[in-house]
Amino acid sequence: MKVIYTPGGLKIRLDPDRVERVLGSAKDQIDMANAYLDIELWAGFPNALSTICTIVTAAATHSLIWTFVAFVFSFGAANAFQQFTYSRILNLIFPSFLGGWIIALPASVATVVYLYFSDSLLAGLAQLGIVVANWLRYTDMMLFIFMPIRLTIRALTGVNLGDIEIAFIRILSLQAQRVGIQLD
Residues with Cβ < 8 Å from 55, sequence gap 6 or more? Predict the structure, then answer.
């Protein structure tokens, strides 16, 4: 099977020739560079959401355990959500804005300082470690832990495409709809 690679190296398991045929005359009106950027950002949705949840939980609870629980739960929930849908709004809010390193890293450092003065340095350092690991995409190893859950959900629902492929199809459909074209 042929695949599509985005400029960032993300692999989309769709045949480029079939995608070209479906797009047809709409291909010239669809911004593929923007579609590739959107899908690359969407791939980081679990990282971005778990980054924000980890920072907020650490600051609110001052607890190392609840910080880790929030990270694992939010990463898993975002990954499960990502399996079946694409949300442009969530993609703009989390991977593009709040979960991006330019916002999350300073917020995380500020949280460490706040927790240091609140005598909860361990929770602060843990959330900083999680934020940095998310930023460097080391936490993508968590996807292996959630793989049996994802595969079970896909088997029960009969969905045979992966999350990246479903999102890419949705992104292309949304772009075509903006210019008044309905894709098959």
Answer: 104, 107, 108, 111, 127, 131
Give the pair of three-digit tokens for residue 73.
């739960």
pLDDT digits (tens, 9 = 90+) for 119-137: 999 999 999 999 999 999 9
Q: What is the pTM of this model?
A: 0.87
Q: Please, which residues have CB within 8 angstroms of residue 123's CB and are 6 or more apart in sequence?
A: 58, 61, 62, 63, 64, 67, 115
Query: Taking the domains of the chain in order of start, what are their residue ranges?
Result: 4-178
Tokens of 13: 């398991």
Continuous segment of H or E residues that includes residue 70: helix 64-82
Q: For residue 144, what are the CA distances in angstroms to 43, 117, 140, 183? A: 15, 37, 8, 34
Which of 109, 79, 83 is closest to 94 using CA atoms?
79
